[in-house]
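hey all, quick one before standup. I had two proteins in the batch that finished overnight and I want to keep them in one place so we stop losing track of which output belongs to which input. First protein below, input sequence then structure tokens straight from the run.
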Amino acid sequence: MKKGLLITFEGLDGSGKTTQIREFIKQLEDNHIDYQLFREPGGTKIGEKIREILLDKNNIEMSEVAELLLYSASRNQLSIKKIRPALMDNKIVICDRFYDSTTAYQGHARKLDLEFIQSLNRVAADNLIPDITFLLDISLEERKNRLDNKKLDRLEQEAGEFHRRVRQGFLNLAKHNQDRFFVIKGTQPIDLIRDQIWSKFQEKYTTE
């Protein structure tokens, strides 16, 4: 029996994560591979309540550190209560965002201390490390076009410079974690991206 793997999807809002996660799940089901899907923040009863607080655009007075700690609290609950048990049950765990988003958004974009965030990420994730991280990369212009008619949440409505730093943060993480990051140009056709993701997954899945 294959061991469980933690597969995370990262990228700017509008990068196509939701679409590609849906495509990936279809392929897992077609190949009779057991999986569980979670989102961040959220994935647990407590985490979903935290998500509401974090994304509520009325909470504009939230401090940067409070934001960081809330994301981390949600992740810790998810990691301990859901992700680790699923991995121990040899399931493929798919996570729509994980701690790399915290490093990109709260570290690079909010400019909080990166060393502290890295330490906090380890604790919050219960020392879990993704086996593969798919980064769907799009330009800020493409992001704007895709979100043009969408009702934006608290973080989505941040200024363009904020999201420029987020994107650069993700690319920096990918550069320094090439063993697990797989960067994909998010403007490619959906089926081409899907095939790239599946190929990379199979490569990892069959060697474990």
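OK second protein, same deal, sequence then tokens:
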Amino acid sequence: MFELIRNGGWLMLPIILCSIGAMGIVAERFWSLQRKKILPPELVPQIWNLVKADKLDNPALRRIKLNSPLGAILASGLINSRHGREMMKTSIEEAGRQVVHELEHFLNTLGTIASVTPLLGLLGTVVGMIKVFAAIMIHGVGDPGILAGGISEALLTTAAGLTVAIPSLIFHRYFERLVDEYVLNMEEEALKLIDVMHGDREEG
């Protein structure tokens, strides 16, 4: 492995750093974007129980807000429920934008890695081919070992760049789709909360 990295030239270093960064982001996002952390199933029933028991005081709202991203959105609406439907909806939308921003944390970086690493591989290919042609100018085509070094560097960086970019792009798309699904679920719960709090629908 070390021999391959050495043969790939100095451009292998940023590609390797990108691969480490991508793996770290993927692991962190898998941990942070667990459904039970974003949309805890017991949260909404707990809120309705507090509403029915008239125990939805400030400490309870603070606990709900800190519970999860869904809790932060619902708590924002509950805090402003006495100010009318529109104010409640506005506060939920504002909290929702902040929550979405947090759910998309590192996804731009992962997308950038997916875009940049093939370009780094291509740059390595160009550098390797320049070395090949420079060696041909100096030594001619009679020494295959000199030519093989430049060609190897060109091919290795391209392969390494694509090896990092392809899974990075796949995971980037996957996490974007996951965030979209969570946002849709949170919107449904928030709209249900607004309707129930203002008597437009029954709880359920």
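Flagging for whoever picks this up: The two ends are 58 Å apart (CA to CA). The CA atoms of residues 58 and 190 lie 19 Å apart.
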